[in-house]
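DM between two lab members

TW: hey, do you still have the tRNA (Guanosine-2'-O-)-methyltransferase entry open?
JB: yeah, one sec
JB: this one, 176 aa:
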Amino acid sequence: MSGPRRNAIRPRTRSEIAANRRRRTHRCWGHLVAAPLWPLHGANLGTLLRTCDAVGACLAVPRFPWVPEALARGNTLRKPTCVHTTGDPAGWLAGRREAGWRLIGVELADEATRLGDLPAARTPTVAVLGHEQDGIPAEALDLLDGAVEIPMVGHGQSLNVAVAGSLVLYKLAGLM
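TW: and the structure you got?
JB:
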């Protein structure tokens, strides 16, 4: 059989994709923030910045000297992005919590919700991402409203912070 294919997949054009996007530019999306406040590698921040743009989230980062360069390198869209900086990660999280935000840590913990069971964020939510080797520090764990765990079947115990954060952000944004 060498006739025309039925149901051929046709990729959307750039203009079709753009037509389905949000119309307004943003300074702060206001409902979802990824918070890798104890990063180990700059490349992960760049990847998370791109994911934040994709899901309509903001990024919160520590005030480390190398962070601005890492974000500039990672911003492959070359458009303004919503980035919050803090010199006091635990204090910043406490401020969000006092303002009524929900704090969800990406952490292997007792009572953690499996990623597949994580509901989309219906209230302002911060996805707290820990250090890749040490996880979320104790002073920040005490502030969390809950934790989400990403099940794994291989030998590793966890994913890198950019991959884990991206999966959780897509789930919280209700896009998967």
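TW: got it. Residues 36-172 form a domain with the Alpha/beta knot fold (CATH 3.40.1280.10). The chain has one domain: 36-172.
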